[in-house]
Amino acid sequence: MKTIKFIILTSIVLLSCSCSSDDxxxxxxxxxxxxxxxxxxGISVAQEKNxxxxxxxEERAAFCFLMxxxxxxxxxxxxxxxxxxxxxxxxxxxxxISQITTVFNFTGRGTITSESIVLQEPTxxxxxTTSFIPTENNIxxxxxxxxxxRGKSTLNGEIDLNQFDDNIIIFNCEFKLELTY
Length: 181
Hints:
The chain is built from one helix and ten strands, in the order αββββββββββ. The protein is mainly beta. A hairpin with a 6-residue loop joins strand 2 and strand 3 (59-71). The relative contact order is 0.19. The mean pLDDT is 87.
């Protein structure tokens, strides 16, 4: 009888020690931060489309431009970039402000979608500089490898609007993606 009580008491002590709360030792997993430097380049013809906002499900009319997505370090084409203009306002000085949804499609890896309000300033002869520096996260969606990603997409580049009347724009734009996931 003493042996049975001893076994039961020992079992209770061992179980209570092994089941002790270790909530105090919990630490949140650290977030991974990655920076990608890429280029959107090429001659593109406007495609009129309806796009769906990935967060709200709202359908928007847009003019979309598809071009090569290039790794800025290697010069290799690593996918496609689609810029969709959902509204442009022309200012008195000839500058343009456009609401742009950009989808970066990395071949075999997934997509990253960002929203920007892009300033385009004329530099002469149909050329414009393009720029957008976000003050807060403007990446709104990611798929496959980039699912759950957040961060910022910065733009600095140039566009050639000499053939704009024929719905053609020539892009040479550098993007810096600061990703956290």
